[in-house]
Amino acid sequence: MLLTTAYFPPVAWFALLARDMTLSPDRVSPSTVWLEACETYQKQSYRNRCYILAGDGIQTLQVPVVHSGTMRIDEVRVDWSTPWLVRTQRALDAAYYTSAYFEYYRDGLFAVMDARPETLWDWNLSLIRFLLDKTGVACSLQPTTSFVLPEQAGADDFRYAVHPKRPDVALPLLGLERPYYQVFADRFGFTPNLSVLDLLFNEGPDAILWLKKL
Fold it and tell me: What does the alpha-carbon distance between residue 39 and residue 13 come to, in Å, rounded to a whole number?
């Protein structure tokens, strides 16, 4: 399977990671996913933005990057010149402090964030690895070594299918168009395909059961 990198990826992205993972009482076999490392950086995508549900509705969290013309995705640098990280952590506190499992993951997550790697690629990868560990999704992530056009990549190319400005195709494909508990569902109803943080903070160790339809 082929995916782009993503910042606090949406549930659909994480569900694709879990798709080929085998989970049974006697064994766990990880899936293998290739992350596109050779593409040109694209704005307004999940590569540097995510969506959470706060008390006033859907909120966008974004990683500012240093723009320097055409940039390969694994070379894009994070802009640490403003206090956006503090604002992001405060936003997560405000949105999820009443969720069932936020307190169990908060300190570990914030420690990963506080490491402040130089590139967006390393930033996203460190967060994805944290989320893999906490959700229980077993996946071997491999960077691509060359760029392949979509028409040559095959049916498991989801690089451009998972995008905030396009209809979600992954959750319907995987049969995951169903709700889980959300803190603010009484105000807004269930909001699908937020960051997988939303699933983790609300469902905790049961997140893997939701992702695998168990």
Answer: 18
Q: Give the whole-angstrom CA distance, residue 25 versus residue 151.
A: 39
Torsion, Cα of 33, 35, 161, 165 (10° steps): 140
Cα 211 to Cα 12: distance, rounded to the nearest angstrom: 9
pLDDT at 70 (0 to 100): 74
The rounded distance, in Å, linking the Cα atoms of 180 and 185 is 10
What value does the mean pLDDT of the chain take?
A: 95
- pLDDT computed for residue 111 by the predictor: 98
Within the chain, where are the H helices?
11-19, 84-96, 102-114, 120-135, 150-153, 170-174, 185-188, 196-203, 207-211
Give residue 69's pLDDT.
Answer: 77
Q: How far apart are CA 16 and CA 19, in angstroms?
A: 5
> Structure pTM?
0.95
Residue segments in the chain with a per-residue pLDDT below the cut of 70: none
